[in-house]
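Lecture 7 notes: from sequence to structure.
We start with the chain below.
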Amino acid sequence: MSIVTFHNLLLKRLSIIIIIAAAFWTVFFVLKSPVLSSQDSPYKSGEVIVGFKASVGNQQQEQTEKRHGDKTSIKLQGINARLVKLGSGRSVTQAIREYEGEPTVAYAEPNFLVHAISTPNDPMYPQLWGLKNTGQTVNGTTGKVGADIKAEPAWAVTAGSASVVVGVVDTGVDYTHPDLAANIWSNTGIGGCPAGTHGYNAITRTCDPADDNGHGTHVSGTIGAVGNNTIGVVGVNWTTRIMGLKFLDADGGGTTADAITAIEFAVQAKIAGVNIRALNNSWGGGGFSQALLNEINKAGTNNILFVVAAGNSSINLNSSTFYPCSYTTAANLICVAATDQNDALAGFSNYGSGKVHLGAPGTNVLSTYPGGYAYGSGTSMATPHVVGAAALILSAPGQGLLTVSELKSKILSSVDLLPSLAGLTITGGRLNVCKAIPGCGTLPTPTPTVTPIATPTPTVTPTLTPTPTVTATPTPTSIPSPSLTPTPTPSCINGEGEC
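Predicted structure tokens for the same chain:
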């Protein structure tokens, strides 16, 4: 498969030292207060690590344990500590407080659970700067270390789940693509569609959402290209389920009515028991539609997050409109601007401190494409990073029942604040999925040592397709914008626009 230029296209233990100085003496109060809640790093129940003072020998250590009805599981002799197995059904929090009250004990702490940092074996992963930016050069542009969504540390907690379904409201999806097929949703017979189908086609009113443009397939790869399968790329989720909801045609155009029909299929699937939790909408244009707003609100009522592209016209949406981003009354809506490989607002991206919520990687994004893989730039490419993050958060331990309001709040409150987005977006930040996942630690700042895979000479170049009606944020070249035009696609100039 070839890579083609896409024209359409992650209270710790706190010691508080209070020093009180009197005439000739100083008193140090050390308050050790680990707060062990579901929001902190996970740890093993029924065990604590107890560190003893240097002068305390084995006999005193054993006596201390016995007083609490506990016993040693492992002696950590090199540091004069023991892994203690708790008796009498006490909680870890309670046991720590008890041991910290012992004169022989220097400290007590949980036996934290740790994980190997997961790096997928997908050969094109080093080119996915939005997931991990080491300062590598991608598609001719050199990036900035750390200007990414911190996917790699998040994967140490979760790499996704087949129980979380996301819908791609777009040009369809290539459900046979070898890097997507295993993560495509399969119908069990709901919504009037036969078992084994993969979504809905609102244009033909059939159950085949096959992609005849490429834009929806590119978006889908960023959300959930299969991870660790030794081929191609990897999505924000290694494992998920993607439902194709086609309403944009081969030229990337569509209508409000068809968009509503596609969204309604997802809503009815949710009502029927499908755990669809987020919809990706990398398209926009047209005027205010009460019908579309009502449908977006209906999705929200059914606990479905509605993530949209800000558009590619370099305009301030505080003083202009671009729908659906401008439906600010929709509580389940997140509008996404595009950032570049150096954490700057992409030159083509719309913005607005009252309309656009956050930024996400949206230039030189490599992803799946019919027949192979392709680079794409645009807010269309930024949006699926956020949808992928939403799915990844929901797959994390204890997060699957988050309401749409809680999910939106987690995403927006976890951004990395950037000077380049201050005053230009509501949060002033770029997506950080690690911060939004309980138990996700921060990797050390990566060093730019990864050698990017050389980009082969393109053997296939997708034809630029004009953008009609509701055009997906895809298409390059200048795209006529009829009724609803997909996030306008500027020409590809100096790495900006859909390229």
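Points to note: Confidence is low (pLDDT under 50) at residues 1-40, 442-471, 473-499. The longest strand covers residues 160-170.
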